[in-house]
Amino acid sequence: MSTTSPSNLSSSTTTSRHGTSTSGVTHSAVEATIARRRAAGSGALIGYLPVGFPSLTESIDAAVALAANGVDVIELGLPYSDPVMDGPVIQAATQKALAGGFKLHHGFEAVAAITAQVDVPVLVMTYWNPVLQYGVDRFADELLAAGGAGLITPDLIPDEADAWLAASERTGLDRVFLAAPSSSDARLVQAIEASRGFVYAVSTMGTTGARGAVDSAARILVDRLRAAGSTSACVGLGISTPDQVREILAYADGAIVGSALVKALTDGGVAAVGVLAAELAAGTRDLR
Amino acid sequence: MFTPSLHPQSDAQPDSLRTEAGPYFGDFGGRFVPESLVAALDELTAEYDLVKKDPAFAAELMELHRSYSGRPSIITEVPRFAEHAGGARIILKREDLNHTGSHKINNALGQALLTKRIGKTRVIAETGAGQHGVATATVAALFGFECVVYMGEVDTERQALNVARMRLLGAEVVPVKTGSRTLKDAINDAMRDWVTNVETTNYIFGTVAGPHPFPAMVRDFQKIIGEEAREQVLALTGRLPDAVTACVGGGSNAMGIFHAFLDDTDVALYGYEAAGDGVDTPRHAATITKGRPGVLHGARSMLLQDEDGQTVESHSISAGLDYPGVGPEHAWLASIGRATYLPVTDAAAMSALRLLSQTEGIIPAIESAHALAGTLELGKKLGPEATILVNLSGRGDKDMETAARYFDLLDEGAEQS
Ligand SMILES: Cc1ncc(COP(=O)(O)O)c(C=O)c1O
């Protein structure tokens, strides 16, 4: 693993990459980034790409291109055999990565290589069984050592997350839980209390994948999260255009784009990812 | 609301093994699902808890069992078959005689009634062998629900007749082309459908796996098998059987027949998993024999997986047993030693299928033939004094193409077509 000096391509943040929980105060780089973008009258752009697609090297280069073109937080997906929250585009990409020999250690290598080159927080998105089999503490330690900021866990609800809550307390890693339009008020409070970094507001009932219009459910959900005390709510699922990013950031703290970036990578390689990221980032400016 | 405090963590020996209601069975079970599904699972749990105590629901379900699917199913003693099992007394519980041809209808009727109570009008299901899909399509026709069944593309080919049955019953069958293109991937797509359409749609899950409340609920809808059989065997033989056997895919027919006997400590329980080409090859579906604890499809249970936690593809000649996971209650029963799980190869199962056909005139499903093959060995071990109750979970009609090919039963020309 190379952890050579960051080249500061984005020069966007001066906070440490991962949080620490010393003296009971957390310093989440993701929270700091989101707060900084909010203070600037905007919101954060969060870009998803899976590790190992179309190859390990290209996936690292593509993630670096995200940061170089204005993405504020990288969400790096670990390919998994049974991705129930993912739609066809991400399924196809992660299946290809698995067929190409993706192993979990490639995930840590990718995080290290990306954080060595750019200074934006890197969150890892993973289904739960790979973490469980790797060992929750071992996984957290290696993610921290690689410079990762934390985990987004789409199939782990706080109710089942005791081991991960403990490991993230110990390491200071962020933990992003999901909130859905169908979640009860009590569950929204639970998601907010369990999360650090941000709460992932699922824009619509469904899986990942570009959609023509962002569901009005997203705005209602963010309003409910705010009423429940959330200071960091980012919206994901179905967001693919600069206009949609602008629309989301008018009320949310961040917009998460996944399938559209994966499709750009599939169709046009790393260069196309950079172009789309720059267009999406333009959607985060001059908002309010 | 679902709370983890429900985990039964006391080390006090429970009085009965028959009171487990989830979400956890020992260390197994739970809810590892996207947040979007939690509300639906909570609703299902709450409604199920209500109907469990409702005599009107029980009466309505009982009437359907009686007048629609033909319960109680009979038991049949099979002495000519038993000659090949060391002379042990072998009794079959005939779930193959149920309407639609397997035990799957028991659960589908229960969940359809529940769907009606909740007020949803669209049902989805996953299916491997097609039996659960056929059962769900059947109850959808009966109750007037829209019905979509997800089925791995490999399974749509090897169980083509069941695809035709489901379509004739008015269901839409979606061939799933991702992953291993079998049951595991059909469940993934059904879950994706449910996440998207949960407001109108109930997921009629086909086995005792998945997130809470499915393992406990599906078991409760299947436990009628063992309750009937226990009385029937007592009436026939004057005593309880020495062993009860069943095949285990996700584990619903096995839990269904085991449950009534869980507290009968003198009754041994055997579950037979599909060993495919053999458990020393990579081509099998022997989850408890060869797996490790892990999370798949919403529950922590035993799982065939690699060191990174990626699910490993299973293999079996039987579509209904071709699943790399297993229900959490089985993982628990194995962990406490109450039930024993053993592997049965494709070859042993097919040989038992032919043996039952030719000694007793009963053609079993290939799934059920795994239980028969295991029972042949068990009988030799237990000796001629023993009585063994076997769950004959389904009939072999759906498997005639596979059997014809396997045993070369058709004339050259016909076989090629
Ligand atoms: C006849 C029959 N038996 C057994 C099974 C396996 O399921 P389970 O283990 O849930 O009983 C199936 C599944 O399709 C089946 O059709």
List keywords for this structure.
heterodimer, A: 288 residues, alpha/beta, TIM Barrel, disordered N terminus, B: alpha/beta, six-stranded mixed sheet, globular, binds pyridoxal-5'-phosphate
**End-to-end distance of chain B:** 55 Å
Low-confidence stretches of chain B: 1-12
**What general form of chain B does the structure show?**
globular
Shape of chain A: globular
Quaternary organisation of the protein chains: heterodimer
Mean pLDDT of chain A: 90
Main sheet characteristics of chain B:
6 strands, mixed
Helix-strand pattern of chain A, N to C? HEHEHHEHHEHEEHEHEHEH
Kindly state the percentage of residues in helix of chain A. 40-55%
Largest interface: A-B, 41 and 40 residues
Q: Which strand order does the major sheet of chain A show?
A: 5-4-3-2-1-9-8-7-6
The H-level CATH homologous superfamily of chain A, spelled out, is Aldolase class I
Ligand kinds: pyridoxal-5'-phosphate
Number of helices of chain B: 17
Distance between the termini of chain A: 42 Å
Beta strands of chain A, count: 9
User: Roughly how many Å is the radius of gyration of chain B?
Assistant: 20 Å
- Individual helix count of chain A: 11
Strand order of the largest sheet of chain B: 3-4-14-9-10-13
Beta-strand content bin of chain A: 5-15%
Function (chain A): The alpha subunit is responsible for the aldol cleavage of indoleglycerol phosphate to indole and glyceraldehyde 3-phosphate.
Region (Disordered) (chain A): 1-28
GO cellular component, one term (chain A): cytosol
Pathway (chain A): Amino-acid biosynthesis; L-tryptophan biosynthesis; L-tryptophan from chorismate: step 5/5
Give the SSE layout.
The complex is a heterodimer of chains A (288) and B (417).
Chain A: H1 29-39, E1 44-50, H2 56-68, E2 73-77, H3 88-99, H4 104-117, E3 122-125, H5 128-134, H6 136-145, E4 150-152, H7 162-171, E5 174-176, E6 178-179, H8 185-194, E7 199-202, H9 216-227, E8 233-236, H10 242-249, E9 254-257, H11 259-282
Parallel strand pairs in A: 1-2, 1-9, 2-3, 3-4, 4-5, 6-7, 7-8, 8-9
Helix pairs in contact in A: 2-4, 2-11, 6-7
Chain B: E1 24-25, E2 28-29, H1 38-52, H2 55-69, E3 75-77, H3 79-82, E4 89-94, H4 104-118, E5 122-127, H5 131-143, E6 146-152, H6 153-158, H7 160-168, E7 172-176, H8 183-197, E8 201-203, H9 214-222, H10 224-237, E9 243-248, H11 252-258, E10 268-276, H12 287-290, E11 292-296, E12 299-303, H13 328-335, E13 339-345, H14 346-360, H15 366-382, E14 387-392, H16 400-407, H17 412-416
Parallel strand pairs in B: 4-14, 5-6, 5-8, 6-7, 9-10, 9-14, 10-13
Antiparallel strand pairs in B: 1-2, 3-4, 11-12
Helix pairs in contact in B: 2-4, 4-5, 4-9, 5-7, 9-11, 10-11, 14-15
